[in-house]
Amino acid sequence: METGKGVNTKYIINSAIVVILMFFFRFIPTFGSMTALGMAVLGIFLGALWGWINCDMIWPSILAITMLGFTSQYENVAAAFTAVISNSILQQILWLLVFSAILTVTGISDQLANRLVTSKMCKGRPWVLSVVIYLASLICSSFGAAFAAMLICWDFIYTICKQVGYTKHDTWPKMMIVGVVFASCVGTVGMPFQAGVAATFGYLSAASEGLYASYNYLQYLIFSLVMCVTSTALYFLLCRLILRPDVSNLKESVSVGNVTAFSQRQKFAIGALIALIVLTILPSCLPSGAFKSFLDQIGTTAFVLLIVGFITVFRTKDGKPIFTFKELANAGIFWNMLFMVGTAITVGTVLATGDTGFTGTLMALFTPLFAGKSPILFAIVICLVTLVLTNLINNAVAGAIMVPVMYSFAAQIGVNPLMLTAVICFVSDIGMMLPCASPSGAMLYSNKEWLETKDIVSYSLIGILTMAIIAICIGIPFGTIIFS
User: Fold this and answer.
1) What is the 3-state secondary structure (H, E, C) of 26-86?
2) How far is 90 from 85, CA to CA, in rounded Å?
3) Cβ-based neighbour number of residue 317 at 10 Å
4) Are 281 and 145 in contact, with CB atoms under 8 Å apart?
5) To which H or E segment does residue 407 belong?
6) What is the pLDDT of residues 313-333, one digit of tens each?
7) Most confident of 185-194, 295-304, 475-484
8) pLDDT at 337
9) Counting Cβ atoms within 10 Å, is residue 329 exposed (0-12), middle (13-18) or buried (19+)?
10) Which helix (H) or strand (E) holds 278?
11) Is the pLDDT of residue 373 over 60?
């Protein structure tokens, strides 16, 4: 709605709500275990969330971090901005965006998409093609390349859409863009040695005072494999039954262009992609030793930056660089995404600290739900509450809250804590519906070119429903057997 002078009234109202929440929410009387700091941070959190959904990505993020700098959590505003910039996840996403430009500026994503569509396995089989792209994201995410997998698979989807005529108004690209993120969320907890899995079982170890100090990697791997396979099958079944996308453009009769030989720049891009995959997967496959420790010390973020730096060394025959860092940075960095992700992570982390009382308030709120339940019903309620919580707040916070709450009742109710912790690993990682739910959720909301807010919410529900069904029907009964 606009006035006669061209002022966007809706935007002004939404902007005012952002400011009111950030500045004045702190004056609401505290409740539960919430402290004055907790009320201030919660207001900043809610204001930023409202702004991201209804206004813009940049200025609500800047205002949120500025306001956070005035809380007792930071010495000053500069310290709050330093916390955002120095965040390891944000650093990883930044350099992965630069790396992904290697694929876009060379047109290699076009080439790979062409070859994928025209391969014998995928040609004329739209759903096979869809599953292959989905699995590429899931598998790469399982070995530590989650953000790279999302960005690369998104590039494939964009290229295919351009070739076959899909637009942002069609169902298939929206389904696949969100599907790639869902696959990444599932894959991120696919391997027993991943940080999210270790952290979640670490919460169990702390809650049990060392009684469950470790978990069996093989048991978890078998459990994870079943969860990944069944969730993939159910996700696409629900997509076919509920979304019913028109996939006729992807059938054999559609021409996607000629497959040409790779150019010099494209060969470098392929080499860089292979190097990224190998270097992010290799450390998790090696036995303990000096070489593994050396690779672990470098880390994924540094590997990405080293690859980007390395390919800028090479020159053509006439002495010109094959790639320049400026070219890659200009083509790859999406500032909207970076501002939102960095702010969401920082504010969410502060909100989860003990000084805010937020975690204690939630624990007190949910505790009555679990008392007196049968073992199966208790496990189901834990799964559903975790799934809701992770989409409203933050996936890391959800796991940190729900595992201790679960353990406090598990022994008296007769539920295996190892089984339920393994299930929580999966359900707590499906934070997609709001930008604050996870870095993946923030990336979805930054993709304004293809997705509107209503698209993200409605399409994310397919993934959330998938995980709810799989966790209850497969995860709990199968996990009870595996972890017995």
Assistant:
1) HHCCCCCCCCHHHHHHHHHHHHHHHHHHHCCCHHHHHHHHHHHCCCCCCCCHHHHHHHHHC
2) 7
3) 6
4) yes
5) helix 395-413
6) 999 888 889 899 999 888 878
7) 475-484
8) 72
9) middle
10) helix 264-285
11) yes
